[in-house]
């Protein structure tokens, strides 16, 4: 299997729960490594650009407002099959539907405030990583 890199965000609600360590431990326990990380507060413009594909959705304003409401942790995760593996560790978008033991089942509050983001494809991962990291900020771990 190929070594991949994918993009992950620990969202403001999970940051408020002091859950960075627990969430990173879940990534590491499943074979993913942290190749880059930064903690920041997203600007409205950056959050809108990041979620541009959802611009027409009714929840877009609420989503941008939530994502800019407090600090987030931005990460590059690296490992075998990292894109799909991260999606499995995260669980379904709606925490109520997420499998037990997944990040969203443990730390998600509702379908919007669902604790983490993870790229849904290799192409999305490349676009999203480039939005938040310079090439030299991502290590080959
Ligand atoms: P994903 O994050 O599991 O890939 P997407 O459908 O791409 O799910 O949605 C992006 C983000 O938009 C979700 O993670 C969630 O924060 C938010 N979102 C999705 N559906 C809803 C909704 O019905 N109400 C409010 N927020 C939503």
From TrEMBL:
One Gene Ontology molecular-function label: nucleoside diphosphate kinase activity
Residues the record marks as active site: 117
Cited SUPFAM superfamilies: Nucleoside diphosphate kinase, NDK (SSF54919)
This enzyme's EC code(s): 2.7.4.6
Residues reported in the UniProt entry to bind ATP: 11, 59, 87, 93, 104, 114
Pfam families associated with the record: NDK (PF00334)
Subcellular location, record wording: Cytoplasm
Domain called Nucleoside diphosphate kinase-like: residue spans: 3-140
Reaction catalyzed: a 2'-deoxyribonucleoside 5'-diphosphate + ATP = a 2'-deoxyribonucleoside 5'-triphosphate + ADP; a ribonucleoside 5'-diphosphate + ATP = a ribonucleoside 5'-triphosphate + ADP
CDD domains xref list: NDPk_I
Gene3D superfamilies: Nucleoside diphosphate kinase-like domain
PROSITE patterns attached to this UniProt entry: NDPK_LIKE (PS51374)
Superkingdom in the source lineage: Bacteria
Enzyme class, broadest EC rank: transferase
Cofactor entry: Mg(2+)
InterPro entries (alphabetical): NDK-like_dom, NDK-like_dom_sf, Nucleoside_diP_kinase
Keywords: ATP-binding, Cytoplasm, Kinase, Magnesium, Metal-binding, Nucleotide metabolism, Nucleotide-binding, Phosphoprotein, Transferase
Its biological purpose: Major role in the synthesis of nucleoside triphosphates other than ATP. The ATP gamma phosphate is transferred to the NDP beta phosphate via a ping-pong mechanism, using a phosphorylated active-site intermediate.
Family: Belongs to the NDK family.
Quaternary context: Homotetramer.
PANTHER family: NUCLEOSIDE DIPHOSPHATE KINASE (PTHR46161), NUCLEOSIDE DIPHOSPHATE KINASE DDB_G0292928-RELATED (PTHR46161:SF3)
The protein, known as: Nucleoside diphosphate kinase
Species of origin: Bdellovibrio reynosensis
Lineage: Bacteria, Pseudomonadati, Bdellovibrionota, Bdellovibrionia, Bdellovibrionales
């Amino acid at each position: 299997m190929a070594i991949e890199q994918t993009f992950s965000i620990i969202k403001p609600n999970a940051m408020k729960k002091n859950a960075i360590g627990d969430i990173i431990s879940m990534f590491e326990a499943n074979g993913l490594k942290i190749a880059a990380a930064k903690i920041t507060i997203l600007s409205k413009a950056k959050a809108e650009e990041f979620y541009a594909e959802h611009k027409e959705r009714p929840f877009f304003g609420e989503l941008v407002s939530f994502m800019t409401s407090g600090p987030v942790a931005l990460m590059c995760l690296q490992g075998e099959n990292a894109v799909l593996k991260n999606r499995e560790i995260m669980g379904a978008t709606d925490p109520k539907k997420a499998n037990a033991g997944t990040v969203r089942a443990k730390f998600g509050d509702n379908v919007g405030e669902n604790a983490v983001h993870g790229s849904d494809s290799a192409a999305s991962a490349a676009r999203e990583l480039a939005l938040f990291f310079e090439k030299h900020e991502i290590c080959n771990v």
